Amino acid sequence: MKALFSVLIMGAALTPLPGLAAEISTHILDLTRGAGGADVPVVLYRSDRQGTWVEACKAKTDSDGRVRSFGDKEQFAPGVYKLQFDMRGYRTAGAEPFFPEIDVVFRVTDAAAHYHVPVAVSPYGYSTYRGN
Hints:
The chain is mainly beta. Helix content is about 10%, strand content about 40%. It has one domain: Immunoglobulin-like, CATH 2.60.40.180. The radius of gyration is 18 Å and the shape is globular.
């Protein structure tokens, strides 16, 4: 019984508390079509203490051009992150993208916040900002 109690206490101590990690989402807005950019591969990286990018999650934008969640938000503690959009297979206005890859580096400072990082794209440019 003591052993079982110890295991339960240790398990509770190791379980992350809700709200101690940020939530990250993104979407692609195709400015030429005025619609979301579907089926674009997106990789979320986090920077380790040495400044090396470590893959945290892979996703693909849905039919609305969104990645609503990158999975277990408990892994997204404050730090520096990078969203990498693989635009090579995406066509807007029938044009091959001038920027085959878009990297957006951002900082998570508030563990209780939701970080929405959209990208607006056109054949020859892109723009990003912190959304809500």
